[in-house]
TrEMBL record:
<protein>
    <submittedName>
        <fullName>Carboxymuconolactone decarboxylase family protein</fullName>
    </submittedName>
</protein>
<dbReference type="InterPro" id="IPR003779">
    <property type="entry name" value="CMD-like"/>
</dbReference>
<feature type="domain" description="Carboxymuconolactone decarboxylase-like">
    <location>
        <begin position="13"/>
        <end position="92"/>
    </location>
</feature>
<dbReference type="InterPro" id="IPR004675">
    <property type="entry name" value="AhpD_core"/>
</dbReference>
<dbReference type="InterPro" id="IPR029032">
    <property type="entry name" value="AhpD-like"/>
</dbReference>
<dbReference type="Pfam" id="PF02627">
    <property type="entry name" value="CMD"/>
</dbReference>
Amino acid sequence: MTARTTHLDPAVRASMQALSAAAKKGLGDPALAELVQIRASQLNHCAFCLDMHLAIARKQGVDESRLDLLNAWEEAGEVFDERERAALALTEAVTVLTEGFVPDEVWERAARHFDEARLAHLLALITVINSWNRLMVSRRIPAGSMEW
């Protein structure tokens, strides 16, 4: 597959990268940030983002079995703790918006594990990875591309 276009306004790219960095920093858990970004990218079928965030997660030492089972996190038993499960449930709810909103029980579950500031950063991270996914998938940027 070849990209439809690799053009992305430099100011847009810089702004989105800054938003991503701020959300990750505020969340305060680099491994969880990567799991969230990988899960959203799986749901959005973004090969570029999957390739990038899987590589980052591996560099951070995220266990390979956790990466292998992320697509089935709900059935993965003790592989993911309750805090991670809450973040992944929120990721799916925000990414898919099946019923047009995030269900209260999903939000409340996440709120039990994250204080208000960290929850806000988690939501920002989910939002920005979804934006990145849509930019990359729409433009058909292939995995591993150096031009995007």
